[in-house]
Amino acid sequence: MRLSELWQKKQPTISLEFFPARTPEAEENLERVIDQLIFFEPDFVGVTFGAGGSTREGSRHLIDKILNDKGFDVVPYFAGYGLGPDDIEAVLESYQFLGVENVLVVRGDPPHNQPNFQPHPESMAHATDLLDFIRPLFPFCLGAAGYPEGHSEAESKEKDLEYLRMKVMKGAEFIITNYFYDNQYYFDYVERCRRLGIDVPILPSIMPVFNVKMMESLSKLCGATITPKLRAGLADLSTTDKRALLNFGIDFGFEQCKELLQAGVPGIHFYTMDRSPSTAGILAKLRREGVLPC
Ligand SMILES: Cc1cc2nc3c(=O)[nH]c(=O)nc-3n(C[C@H](O)[C@H](O)[C@H](O)COP(=O)(O)OP(=O)(O)OC[C@H]3O[C@@H](n4cnc5c(N)ncnc54)[C@H](O)[C@@H]3O)c2cc1C
Predict the structure, then answer these.
(1) Which of 24, 52, 87, 270 registers the highest number of CB atoms within 10 A of its CB?
(2) What does the DSSP 8-state code read for residue 267?
(3) Catalytic residue numbers?
């Protein structure tokens, strides 16, 4: 179903994000993780697209599996950086063929591990250009990425929001945000968006805490502040007690989701990182405590 229609019928939604596996072992693990998490009956599942088209086949395969084998709506992400117009059309045609109805359009970044990567000469500079190109060619319900703390390259938060407004004017019907560890970033962001006339649903993303090293490096990369409250909670834990860290992450994520849901967000989007215990723990607790219906 188109997300614009889904949110008219049902709020809040629960959605999960997966990335395609790159090895046979990871593929096996992912299969298990998907089966464990679809138990929670997500309203849709996001599937990432590797920088420069690096997971093109893997993304298509994963979309097909979740949509057509498991029977859950999939929102593929499409990162256009490095690809030319023919490739963009070919990827999106393959998604249309699979039965996809929604696509989250992001610019993407140069691939980290390929210093010699050569973008196609007609690679598009911004998500706004991609939306311009895709909108007249495909009937998808299109979405765009939003950054409650601002995008790392943005001249200013104001300029970043002007471009977000442009993305909506060019056809984005929903926004999925980057993750954050303090809901106030999201609340302020939504308020600033609404003041600018951006009136589409803005879906908050949650990144469960389960690995401190990974949290530090990803947060730097993605521009998500590790708040003093989060640091203080982590400082109280033994560095070798993985179970305590998992439980802390579940409680922290639960509190974030509870506050967001009580504020009336359209849904919660989980960055699962292709692991199940944290997301499953948060969802189970939300149900147990009556924040989400069983
Ligand atoms: C929910 C979510 C999902 C993601 N999924 C993926 C994925 O699957 N694969 C992947 O590779 N990456 C993914 N990303 C990361 C994303 O590709 C990067 O953050 C990238 O650096 C920016 O993408 P964007 O679509 O926001 O770019 P843009 O909207 O193009 O913005 C990039 C920068 O340019 C500025 N800008 C925007 N439009 C213009 C314009 N017209 N003129 C001048 N400046 C402009 C913005 O202020 C910003 O600073 C995701 C991000 C989010 C939040």
Answers:
(1) 270
(2) E
(3) 17
